[in-house]
């Protein structure tokens, strides 16, 4: 944080309020207040947060399920491997036009594109966590004829959760980035659209102010994910505990 604060202070001291390209940070606050007075800032922030939250939740659920299926079933892994690699390598801007053709404009297409992009780290980390289970533990699991619920709770869950959390740490920033990208490409409501409008109208102060808002949101998201991961893992049993 110290280098960033020093950069902003230097920028403020040497910058000019009349600069059309690099307005000083003091003008950003004025730009944010102007957007808020117009009634456009708060609704855009709410839409972006809603899209991000829904997409991240869906990515966690879908990515965990797919990763568990791939990691636990070698046949599924071999059959779905090439398709998953093809989908994972597809860039988000290339997905947006097809998603718009199939779904149309609106928040739904943004959620679908973000989920499609952000779920792969969770899928891969979850599958690898399941595959890393010790063969002796799996054989003991079969020999004891444990019920499905006990297997999930005492064998698979302790192995899968660290992988899911690691995947979420990677997927959360991706969700933020792709959410803004889709809002720009589809002209949907949100911070991305406001940022694009500021760029098109050459309102530099608004563009930098919205960029600061986006950066702060990404910082808070990452800090929240790290905090949740630490608290969960502190109380989570080790792999195979209480089997």
UniProtKB/TrEMBL annotation:
Its main location: membrane. It is found in: Cell membrane. It comes from the Bacteria. It is a multi-pass membrane protein. Keywords: Cell membrane, Membrane, Transmembrane, Transmembrane helix, Transport. InterPro entries: MetI-like (IPR000515), MetI-like_sf (IPR035906). The chain crosses the membrane at residues 40-73, 94-123, 170-196, 208-228. Residues 45-229 form the ABC transmembrane type-1 domain. Signal peptide: none annotated. Belongs to the binding-protein-dependent transport system permease family. This is ABC transmembrane type-1 domain-containing protein. It comes from Allokutzneria multivorans.
């Amino acid at each position: 944080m110290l280098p960033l604060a020093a950069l902003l202070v230097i920028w403020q001291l040497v910058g000019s309020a009349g600069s059309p390209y690099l307005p000083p940070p003091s003008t950003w606050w004025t730009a944010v207040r102007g957007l808020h007075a117009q009634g456009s800032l708060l609704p855009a922030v709410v839409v972006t947060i809603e899209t991000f939250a829904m997409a991240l939740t869906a990515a966690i659920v879908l990515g965990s399920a797919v990763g568990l299926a791939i990691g636990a079933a070698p046949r599924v892994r071999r059959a779905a491997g090439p398709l998953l690699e093809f989908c994972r390598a597809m860039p988000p801007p290339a997905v947006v036009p097809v998603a718009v053709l199939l779904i149309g404009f609106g928040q739904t297409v943004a959620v679908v594109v973000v989920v499609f992009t952000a779920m792969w780290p969770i899928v891969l980390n979850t599958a690898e966590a399941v595959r890393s289970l010790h063969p002796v533990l799996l054989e003991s699991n079969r020999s004891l004829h444990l019920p499905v619920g006990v297997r999930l709770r005492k064998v698979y869950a302790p192995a899968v959760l660290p992988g899911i959390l690691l995947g979420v740490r990677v997927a959360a920033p991706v969700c933020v980035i792709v959410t803004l990208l889709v809002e720009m490409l589809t002209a949907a409501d949100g911070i991305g659209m406001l940022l694009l409008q500021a760029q098109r109208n050459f309102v530099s102060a608004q563009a930098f102010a919205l960029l600061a808002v986006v950066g702060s949101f990404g910082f808070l998201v990452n800090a929240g994910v790290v905090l949740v991961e630490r608290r969960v893992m502190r109380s989570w049993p080790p792999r195979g505990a209480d089997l």
